Amino acid sequence: MTVEMRLSPRLFAAVQDFAYRTAGIELPEGKQEMVAARLWKRARTLGYASAEEYFEAVQRDRSGELEVDILDALTTNYTSFYREPAHFDFLQKEILPRLKNRRRFSIWSAASSSGEEPYSIAVTLVETLGSGAYEQARVRATDISTRVLRLAQAGIYPEERFRQMGADWRSRYLLRGKGEQAGNYRFRPEIRQMIQFERVNLMEPLGPAGPFPLIFLRNIMIYFDRPTQEKVVAAMTDKLEPGGYLFIGHSESLNGVEHSLEHVQVAIYRKSGRLEDRTL
Q1: Which of 44, 63, 106, 156 has its CA 20 to 30 A from that of 135?
Q2: Rg for the chain, CA atoms, rounded
């Protein structure tokens, strides 16, 4: 990185403060080069002369569009289908048998990124509960990034993302792209219709949705410091039904985080109470 591209201590501190206040994202001192590279990339893409000029535009913007843009730049939206398979195994064997008699229920994917997680949940629901899941179950997919939500809502992914899936799985849940979409697959409409996409900033009031029997909150806690983790976990706990489950990432832990949940197994926590097998 050239000297010109490095952020001044003042600018880096301002970006740190902005990210924390806006989205609870912690940018420790070791992240200066990463932050500088990503801000310079966005500055060049959007036609600003420097990272500082770009950040000044973010602060002046009242539409919220540049705020979303810089938060996209500062976070890493990596995910995959059926990431951390033990969670989907637990969902199939332990949770869905208790929900199968409900008329309606919804599962929340609270940091859904580019959609791999909510689509994996939706397919798991259908494979476990049968075709009735198309009407019975919904997945609420939320993220702070409107860019990744647009990608997720389209439900289109490169063919190589599905190489580990069998041909029968692909024929049941995907449509093969043709023409300009050759080399891509798109999830079938009945799967896409199970998922409701919405922008949610976990630092803001979460609104009336819920309660949920299960919330996926995976691979987002790593961006938060301890007080923010406690705030988010408390908000998620409020959104869980009695006996409901919270999944976090396998690389994450609630050790040292004050919370009221029971530890079930690695990266799985449960709210006290009984998960009812009927519609609440």
Answers
A1: 156
A2: 20
Say what the pTM is.
Answer: 0.81
Q: What angle do CA 16, 17, 21 make, to 5 degrees?
A: 120
Q: Are 242 and 43 in contact (CB under 8 A)?
A: no
User: Do the bridges between strand 262-265 and strand 184-187 make them parallel or antiparallel, or are there none, so unpaired?
Assistant: unpaired
Does the annotation count 61 as an active-site position? Answer: no
Contacts of 231 (CB under 8 A, 6+ apart): 24, 203
Asked if 161 is an active-site residue, the reply is no
How far is residue 141's CA from residue 111's CA, in Å, rounded to a whole number? 7
H-type helices in 47-115, by residue range?
51-60, 65-74, 85-90, 96-99
User: Mind listing the pLDDT tens digit for each residue in 119-157?
Assistant: 999 999 999 999 999 999 999 999 988 888 998 999 999
Digit-coded pLDDT (tens) for 88-131: 999 999 999 999 999 999 999 999 988 999 999 999 999 999 99
Return the closest-CA partner of residue 169 out of 119, 123, 115, 121: 123
Q: Which residue among 69, 138, 140, 143 is the active-site one?
A: 143
Closest listed residue to residue 50, CA positions, set 36, 66, 31, 63: 36
First to last CA, the chain: 56
